Amino acid sequence: MPSPLISTAQLALEIDTPTCVVVDTRHELANPQWGREAYSNGHLPGAIFFSIDHDLAAEKNGKNGRHPLPAPDAFAHTLGQKGIDRTSKIVIYDQGSAMYAGRLWWMLRWMGHDEVYVLDGGYARWTQEARSVDTVIPTRAQREYVGRAQESMRVNMIELRKALTAPESRIIDARAPERFRGEVEPIDPVAGHIPGAINRPFTQNLRDGVFKPATELRAEFEAILASRSPQQVIHQCGSGVSALANMLAMEHAGLSGSRLYPGSWSEWCTHPENPIARA
Q1: Tens digits of per-residue pLDDT, 177-215?
Q2: Listed residues 107, 125, 150: the one ending a domain
Q3: Catalytic residue set
Q4: Would 116 disulfide with which of 61, 108, 144, 168, CB 3.0-4.6 Å?
Q5: What is the side-by-side order of every strand in the sheet holding 198-199?
Q6: Is the distance from CB of 239 to CB of 99 less than 8 angstroms?
Q7: Count of Cβ atoms closer than 10 Å to residue 94 Cβ
């Protein structure tokens, strides 16, 4: 498959084409209103806004994580309301790390949408290159989005428990090292990590604000896989968001087929029967 990344130069050539839909997913976990405010203050021309908390997550119940995955029909309805259908070529950006853009990228792929890309370098790279931005809030006519969830792209908590005793599985945790080790936990109620997980902070995918070359990322992830196939990889993080930056990096490196545990640590740690590791 082609790389899921698109450069700022390529997007500049395509941004005005009728089927191109640009989506702003900027967000801050500690300040949920920041993303919408940043979008209002300036965004890529024609870009629409998706909220991580409202458009890309379902209602929380205290046991299903901080960003529960919406039901497929609910997400399809959101896409249609935003003026997106299966003919759309979607380009997503965030501040630049791809942790938020990756969430929408994966959710669209989950729905069977192939023409979806993440802007390499995000808003930061676009503005560093002095490319145009505007403050006009576009309106798009509602459409019907028809898609079918590809459930093989994810695992649930029960399936992950089984994977803990399967030596062929490789669980990759995208959180910062100190959170993984359980030294600090600024967001979730319990510190630590899923036993057997390997820590690969998503920030390691970037250099100078853009993704490392595909060959370099491939070598780094192959070292983690240790002869396993990408299909044996399960990604997780705090709430099923930054983990997608690692999956995106693997896809860019030509290592396709890994899966997501959407509930991630924020779901896992709220169930006392789940084992927890530290250090």
Answers
A1: 999 999 999 999 999 999 999 999 999 999 999 999 999
A2: 150
A3: 237
A4: 108
A5: 198-199, 170-173, 233-236, 259-260
A6: no
A7: 26
